[in-house]
Amino acid sequence: MAKTVMVVDDSASLRQVVSIALRGAGYDVIEGCDGVDALSKLTGQKVHLVISDVNMPNMDGITFVKKLKQMAAYKFTPVIMLTTESQESKKQEGQAAGAKAWVVKPFLPTQMLAAVSKLVMA
Amino acid sequence: MRANTDVWLWMSPLASGGAGVAALLWVSWLSGAGGQTIFAEVAIAVAVFAALCAWGSAHRQRAALRQLMRQAGAELEQAYQALQQQKLSGIVGLEQICDQAAPIWVKQIETARGHTEDSIVEIVTRFNAIVERLRASVIASQQTTGNLDGDSVVSVLSSSEADLVGVNRAMDAALRKRAEMVQDVQKLIVYTTELKGMAAEVAEVAARTNLLALNAAIEAARAGDTGRGFAVVADEVRKLSTLSSDTGKKMAEKVNVINSSITAVIGAAEKFGEEDTRSVEEAEKIIRKVLSNFGAVASGLSASTEMLRQESEGIRKEISDTLVYLQFQDRVSQILAHVRDNLGGLHNQLQLCSAERNSGGEPAIDAKSWLSEMARGYTTTEQRSNHSGGEVGVTPESAATEISFF
To answer: Of A23, A105, B125, B256, most Cβ neighbours within 10 A?
Structure first.
């Protein structure tokens, strides 16, 4: 059975690139255009991993991850922050929120998939 | 200009003093021969007077210059004030421009950002379609070639060749067995020849028996009535001899018929055998030719399949790499969005300033705070580099994923 990954990014093109790479590797994908949209789509179904941008309208990625971790069904769901931010302070914010990895855009799909595989299997 | 003025300010008394000294020396020269003291004193007095006059002249000149400088300063101050006034009026114009242009810039940037985003989405969609079509082509190609890779096709070809060569060998074996059968039939001719000889012997025995029966009949006739019974026996022996003779003839005839048939069969068999041999050789040539052609086609097909697979992988990699560079659109989008927000914020700030000014206040924008606030919103290294006055941030030529695990 295919694993499910949620992709949250306000950039439609980035969501598309990430989704194509994930679907090509056999994952099912749920997309959200920001934190609010993503939370509305998480209705208790099994999600094996979340990939989220940081800077988004309505609700940024850090706030989204904090709220995600407060939900019982997704408390232990691993999160990858996928962002243009590379500042150490931002990374620490992401880690404190509960993220397991920080990937800076642009990314090579193969390396992103390797990170996804590593965290899904963990 | 001021430096030159100072030089002349101090040069004038020196020049006047110099003239006094010259006069003193001249007077001393005139009085030198006779030692006339009075002339010397007068000369000294004249020289001192000249020096004092020179000093007074220099002092007046310095005062005049100071006056001129004060005037120049005042004029400069007026010019500066005028310039400041000019600048202030320039800021007002700028404010008006910003007030009207900033919303337009915001819209222009948003339009450009939106177009770029839409275009990238379209490009990614098309790239994905190309990848899917390539994948479908490769699958179709594999199905056409029996879902086999190049090595398997060659392997099947080799196997088929071995099978066909085996068929050829079986046909050769069949031909050899047919030749052996012909040889066996040829041996029958020898047997029939022997049978023919035996039939001749039977005929000879019959002839002799017939002659014996004839002699017995003659002797029986000569014996008269006593030999009548013997005459009957001799007659039966003669009939038996005739019968044997007929049988011998029939045997010889049948043997001849059999020999003719065997000869005809052997001739036909040999003829067919030769034709079969030629057919087998021809079939073998054709099979080898077909196998060779098939091998060439299969090798070409395998090569083209492999090439297609490699090309497909190459194109997929190219597209994958391209997708990496398309991600820079996200960075561009964020930079443009930030500029858009800053312009919008500046527009709002200018409107607030304008309202404050209209209400009699003296609006001011703290540029340093404004810029610091602007910098806090940066999300990319390019933005920070541009802001700090470094080299203009450009898209890196090669993208390497930066991943940190916590």
So the answer is: A105
Quick one: tokens of B311? 């090309």
CB pairs under 8 A between A and B: 94
CATH fold of the domain at A4-119 = Rossmann fold (3.40.50)
Domain residue extents for chain A: 4-119
| Whether complex ipTM tops 0.90 | no
Q: In whole angstroms, how far apart are CA A85 and each of A55, B164, B223, B365, B376? A: 9, 68, 154, 29, 12
Contacts of B387 in chain A (CB under 8 A): none
What single-letter DSSP state applies at residue B388?
T
Distance CA B289, CA B286 (A): 5
* Adjacency order of strands within the sheet including A101-104: A28-32, A4-8, A49-52, A79-83, A101-104, B402-405
Contact B323 A54 (CB under 8 A): no
Phi, psi of B405 (to 5 degrees): -100, 140
pLDDT in tens, B38-73: 544 544 554 455 445 545 554 555 566 566 667 766
**How deeply is B2 buried, as exposed, middle or buried, from its count of CB atoms within 10 A (0-12, 13-18, 19+)?**
exposed
Q: What residues of chain B lie within 8 A of the CB of A94, using their CB? A: 406
Pairwise CB contact (< 8 Å): A109 & B320: yes
User: Could you give the CA distance from residue B104 to residue B93 in angstroms, rounded to a whole number?
Assistant: 17
The CB density around residue A99, as the number of other CB atoms within 10 Å, is 25
CB B401 to CB A108 under 8 A? yes
